[in-house]
Write a sequence for this structure.
């Protein structure tokens, strides 16, 4: 018997009580009320846990004001990508700036890392345990190179892209456009206009949702509060540092990551441990805070992680330096 039928049966019983004495009616009504209450809150009758607002677990945490912790890899083997799927991290990214540009391997890794039935069954929804991002050889200034890489990477099912060496607002604006579909007329988030071509077959499979649902979710957070994609420019040059406030102001920037461990200190012409590098970090952090943008940094020890979180960095990457 369904819960609806049981409720109707109880109500019918209450109607039959009308012919009895007042005391009997009161006592019977109390018994029926208690039965209804037990029925409605009994184990198995509680509605299933609601799916998260975001399929991207990193965005889900950031949208609730929490920090995210992640790592990087250049190993796209089946075993490593399976292990990535079950790490105690919020995100991982495949580094193809300093390793081979292997798009076949990336597609293989996405399928291995994001289609984890055990996680789906445990969570009760299609959100993976770890969001998978990637970083490619092209720099922010290489706009034509980024065009096709962004399109193919997102169509594979990535949830975010880290862009090397973004130097100015114009570069970042174009990168944001590459990650967005042209918007429907009814969209509240028309700008910047999207330039991404539509062919999300593999992404739909990796995300475990319909094409229509993917189209709705495949937009940039926090520009679109319901978006599940992250655009993450890296500040790695003296010019990028000079323009960081303008870069942070671009609608669609999800986080800004500092490349102080390698490129930035070289562009500044100083050793990695010099005070100028730490001042550069704080300049970038201040720009992030001023524009309410998540700020990312590498922290290799627990003490360093705690220090950076306390300063206000919201995206921490562990592992080797940039």
């Amino acid at each position: 018997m369904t819960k609806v039928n049981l409720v109707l049966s109880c109500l019918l019983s209450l109607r039959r009580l009308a012919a009895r004495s007042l005391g009997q009616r009161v006592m019977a009504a109390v018994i029926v009320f208690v039965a209804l209450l037990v029925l409605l809150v009994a184990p198995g009758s509680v509605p299933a846990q609601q799916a998260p607002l975001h399929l991207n677990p990193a965005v889900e945490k950031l949208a609730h004001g929490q920090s995210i912790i992640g790592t990087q890899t250049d190993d796209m083997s089946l075993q490593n990508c399976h292990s990535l799927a079950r790490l105690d991290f919020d995100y991982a990214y495949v580094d193809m700036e300093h390793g081979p540009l292997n798009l076949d391997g990336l597609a293989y890794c996405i399928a291995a890392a994001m289609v984890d039935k055990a996680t789906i069954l445990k969570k009760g929804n299609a959100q993976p345990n770890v969001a998978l991002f990637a970083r490619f050889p092209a720099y922010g200034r290489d706009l034509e190179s980024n065009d096709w890489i962004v399109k193919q990477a997102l169509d594979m099912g990535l949830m975010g892209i880290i862009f090397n060496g973004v130097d100015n607002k114009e570069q970042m604006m174009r990168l944001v456009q590459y990650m967005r579909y042209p918007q429907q007329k009814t969209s509240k988030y028309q700008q910047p206009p999207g330039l991404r071509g539509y062919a999300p077959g593999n992404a739909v499979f990796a995300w475990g949702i319909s094409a229509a649902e993917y189209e709705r979710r495949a937009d940039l957070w926090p520009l679109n509060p319901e978006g599940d994609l992250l655009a993450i420019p890296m500040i790695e040059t003296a010019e990028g540092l000079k323009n960081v406030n303008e870069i942070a102001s671009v609608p669609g920037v999800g986080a800004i990551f500092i490349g102080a461990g390698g490129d930035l200190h070289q562009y500044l012409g100083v050793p990695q441990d010099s005070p100028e590098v730490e001042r550069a970090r704080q300049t970038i952090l201040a720009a992030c805070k001023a524009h309410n943008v998540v700020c990312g940094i590498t922290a290799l020890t627990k003490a360093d992680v705690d220090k950076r979180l306390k300063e206000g960095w919201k995206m921490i990457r562990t592992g080797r330096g940039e």
Summary: The beta strands are 68-73, 91-95, 131-139, 160-164, 230-235, 255-258, 294-298, 315-317. The chain has two domains: 3-41, 57-317. Confidence is low (pLDDT under 50) at residues 34-49. The chain is about 45% helix and 15% strand.
